[in-house]
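Reading a protein record of the kind used here takes only a little practice. An example makes this concrete, so a full record is given next.
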Amino acid sequence: MAKALVIVESPAKIKTLRKFLGPKYFFESSVGHIRDLPQKEFGIDTEHDFEPTYVTMPDKKEVIKKLQDAAKKADIVYLCPDPDREGEAIAWHIASILPKNTKIQRASFQSITKTAVQEALSHPRDIDMDLVNAQQARRLLDRIVGYKISPILTRRVKRGKSGTSAGRVQSVALKLVVEREKEISAFTPVEYWTLSSLLLPVKGEISFSAFLHSVDGIKVEKEQIADKPCFLISNKTTADELVIRLKKAQYKVGEVDQKEKKRNPVPPFITSTLQQEASRHYGFSVSRTMGIAQSLYEGIDMGPEGSEGLITYMRTDAVSVAPEAIAAAREYIQSHFGPEFLPDQPKIYASKKSAQEAHEAIRPTSLQRDPESIQKYLSIDEYKIYLLVWRRFIASQMNPAIYDTVSADIETDQNLTLRATGSVIKFKGYLAAYEEKKDPSSVVEEDENAKILPPLVQNTSLILKKVDSVQSFTKPPHRFTEASLVKELERLGIGRPSTYASIMNKIQSREYTTKEHQALKPTELGQVICQMLEENFRPIMDVMFTAQMEDQLEQVAESKKNWKELISNFWHNFIPLVEKAEKDAQVPKLLTDLDCPKCSHKLQKIWSRNKYFYGCSDYPTCPFTAPIESLTFNKEDYDPDFDWEQACPICKSSMVLRHGRFGPFLGCSKYPECKGIINIPKKGEIVYNPEDLPKCPAIGCDGHLTARKSRFGKTFFSCSNYPDCDVIVSTLDQIEEKYNAHHQKTPYVKKSRFGKGKKKETAEPAKKRKTASKKKSTRTQPALPLSSELAAIVGAKELSRPETTKKVWDYIKLHKLQDPKNKRLIRPDTKLAKVFGSTNPIDMMKLAGVLSKHFKT
């Protein structure tokens, strides 16, 4: 019997495919790419028509052998990587390593369902070299940019082992983040006042608010807009004058405009819109969303049904949908929502010009699997994403929502016009299934229009109830989130569905941006990189240039442009920029208005590794340098009782103020010979007097406990003889529990971590480990009598301290006594309250101290 080999990209698909296809097929996985450009070489022969050199990836030798051995046993090989350009390139690379004369066909699965898979294998095709070449061109362009620019950045920025990198698309994404930050920094808030009158119709019962719209025939605006005539309420004086006029005014209803407004459904998801909605609904990062969507596409174990792919391919920019899927959606809407929700004709959405129409939008593979019926087979995250995909797809084929909107002008005898607006939903339409969430900037405006107005008739008199005036300030633009940055990149035509997640990862993993409340903020390093690229590689940072390059890559995929010609044109325009940058590129020094403390010349900000420092502009004549923090340091922010003149706790030499990664501290003036340091407590922070702290409990140690700070700012206590003594505790209450009377003074040994690239210890350290384990065994603590209250909790009258603590924690977890909002807090029940001596909650770090009182020694 003929045997067919199916090679897929991800091993996760194999279980699902095996169920569909039966014993005539057998399966292997390439586990992603198997060949790529070399890691430590350029890999592009610029002298011979830009021919790329592909090498086997270091960790794929065994995978390739498996694929080759399997192909020898097969009569035909179906190459089935993902249905995008990258998948096409992977198929081409796999074909190149298979034995000669292997019969090869390409099949791509838009979804992992029995029907879709069997259909794809029934109609295989040849590898599409236009798609492969488009992917090759993208890979070579990215290699040229990264390989030529990154070393220049690394040399100039001097970031050490961390290095720096530049990418063709990631650099533009970074530019967008940096430019937005510049807009925010340069933004000047403008004061404005909003005035409103609460009004009641003469014969009505429902009051409503109307906002001041025009003064003396001139429209009220928040701020001046170009040369447009407008009335500004920019201070309290103006606002108060208008309030007086509003209070003595007579009001009546002017022109009333009533309309019926339709709100149309949105298309089913494409990659970027799924990423945006997952961020708005759940706060998911782009990479997290794509990982979850990948698992839903590849197949979920559905119990008795076996594995099934639940959604179509998730890297797509097309909104087209298969006719049979539209028909199924219409049938579902008819039966579950009713005929009034079903449009007369199916809704057909138009994709962008650059979209790959071979793909469908992201949709459920079968509407017979509604989210609730299969929830038990899904993780929480999988359920959330599947629910979004399901609802969005159903909503896309429903009737529009219909609103009744009202806009009424309110006239006065003071030459002031107010306006009241409102809307009420008349027919929910697609909103019965799904409502798209909005970005923060558009929410306020929608809320203002969502108010319901009472019936208003023109020329009807109105009674004034009160006048309100509210001071506000204009706000800067919002920082980009991952989702809104993807939306902006898509709007500009930059990047593709398969690249958005990697772009977000790169600008964050390289520490070019950080996240603050889900928003992307550029670091100083990111701003420096962006500035250097802007000054030396302007085309790479040009949004239009990058978008045009994406269009040219589309032309390659459509067989309208030769890919090597594209690479050649780019290379010959790009290399002169590289040669110039190698000579001229520098991190610019920023001159400040600050005077040098030594010579009175101006200080300048000079870049070093990850941050700026101050240096004298008259260098080398004046060698003054200082950390940025040192000139902004204010002693008033720290404990007023702190002794700034105290001596080094180790060698008694004088101390000097230093600044580290975790803030200011006093360091020994004899550093590096002496490494004594003293943390500086902030105002309001608990200060521990060294004389009040206990002596080190270790036998043979003459040290005492000192309060120190972790890199996270938390206080802990360790022996002053560290690292010669290993005594360390988080709280003073832990000393008795952790170190008994038999603990000898022991040097601190850093815990070894075996992992990638780490060598095991030699025989000598192994011997030390054996000795240490013997010592550890001698530290068994004796059982101690317990109080009746504690015995009732642990179920024993005598136990050692560690055993008691463990059993108390077992009791706490069994009875769920940790505060759900703050796991550090323990809220006692009746029995535990007797141990605590109170019904008040305590911090978990104080538990050991509380339990100590219940041991009878």
Q: What stands out?
A: Residues 753-779 have pLDDT under 50 and may be disordered. The radius of gyration is 35 Å. Residues 48 and 187 are 52 Å apart (CA to CA). The first strand starts at residue 4 and ends at 8.
